[in-house]
Amino acid sequence: MLLDIDVEVFDGSDHLPVIEIFKLVARGRHDWLPSKSDAMRAESFVASLYAAKVKAPDLKLWARKTMEAAADRGGSAFPPSGGARPVRVTPANVGPAAEDLGKPAVLVVENRIGDGGFVQAMATALRDERVVHALRKRWLKFCHSGGTGQMAELAVDECRDFSLIVRVAMLIDSDRPDAATPSPNDQKVQKARRGGVPHVHMLTWRMVENYVPFRVWERHFPYKAAKIKDLREWIPQQRGYRHLKIHFIGEKGKMPSPLMPDGMALSEADFHELGPDVVAELRQVLAMIHGIL
Questions:
Q1: Angle subtended at Cα 109 by Cα 105 and Cα 111, rounded to the nearest 5 degrees
Q2: Is the sign of the CA dihedral 125, 203, 218, 253 positive or negative?
Q3: Which of 27, 100, 179, 223 could cysteine-pair with 165, CB 3.0–4.6 Å?
Q4: Going by C-beta distance under 8 Å and a sequence separation of 6 or more, which residues neighbour residue 247?
Q5: What is the pTM of this model?
Q6: CA angle at 105 for the pair 67 and 288, rounded to the nearest 5°
Q7: What is the mean pLDDT of each run of 10 residues along the chain (293 residues)?
Q8: C-alpha Rg value of the chain to the nearest Å
């Protein structure tokens, strides 16, 4: 998350939240791109910690590199990338900000193993290193809702864990049988947004399974060549709304778990093969996740 830190926080009565935020930035969890003058104030603040015998070698190195980076930018603050609005940290909110920024961001999904594994495999295939790194470091966690039933309520409840910077997003299936039919989950999306969930993405196609590459199904069902052949022959607008559980195993069967096989290397081409708009939509999901990291 991009921060805009008011240097007046260095003169506040409590330095611990400032130190906590700086440590998060130093570890690459959040970003701060100050002007040269603000970087100088930060370096001076870190030096004052050493003078007070508060040893923080990681902060000392970070402050020096931050100063060098600001000088390389010509002394001015770096503009927000991609139009992202920075989070303002001031003396009035530095305590709650430090607390919220130190918590894991939350992505609410229907199934933590199935949908969560899909997001991780998709982020890896599309080479989104920030999301992959956040998952590896547990800076991003999946919240399991057990289906769409109470998904909105759960997402709203997750928001209550944040007092200032709400770092919660929701990824929900559309459950639509075709492109012309309204989603039965539209009201859940609206309920989540009304309840304060800042980021919600409803999948265009029926469910996460419809975005799973062909090679994955070939791995899961090597003995169902005819079913996979049918899948490949349907046009994207037809395949995208098929109920793939019924297609592969019938109403009473169970889909493979985990949905994305461990150790299977996928590429952007595997997702692009599903249809011309798939990769663009998946990048929208990743951009939403960036909004809470």
A1: 125
A2: positive
A3: 100
A4: 227, 230, 231
A5: 0.92
A6: 90
A7: 94 92 95 92 89 81 88 65 78 97 97 94 97 97 86 96 97 96 96 97 97 96 94 95 92 85 94 96 97 96
A8: 22
**CA–CA dist 173, 142 (Å, integer):** 15
Are the C-beta atoms of residues 286 and 121 closer than 8 Å to each other?
no
Q: 232-237 contacts: CB < 8 A, separation 24 or more?
A: 236/274, 236/275, 236/276, 236/277, 236/278, 237/179, 237/275
Distance CA 148, CA 202 (A): 11
Question: Quick one: which of 187, 211, 190 has its CA closest to 275?
Answer: 211
Helical segments of 105-224, H only: 114-125, 129-136, 151-159, 186-194, 214-220
**Exposed/middle/buried for residue 127 (C-beta within 10 Å: 0-12, 13-18, 19+):** exposed
User: For residue 32, which phi and psi values (nearest 5 degrees)?
Assistant: -140, 125
Q: Burial-class residue 73 by CB neighbours within 10 Å (0-12, 13-18, 19+).
A: middle
**Preceding amide of 258 cis, omega within 30:** yes
Q: How far apart are CA 122 and CA 117, in angstroms?
A: 8
CB-CB contact of 81 with 223 (8 Å): no
Give the DSSP H/E element, type plus range, for residue 160.
none
Instruction: Please tell me the distance from the alpha carbon of residue 123 to that of residue 260, in angstroms, as a whole number.
Output: 12
CA 189/CA 172 separation, integer angstroms: 8
Structure tokens at 268: 């952007």
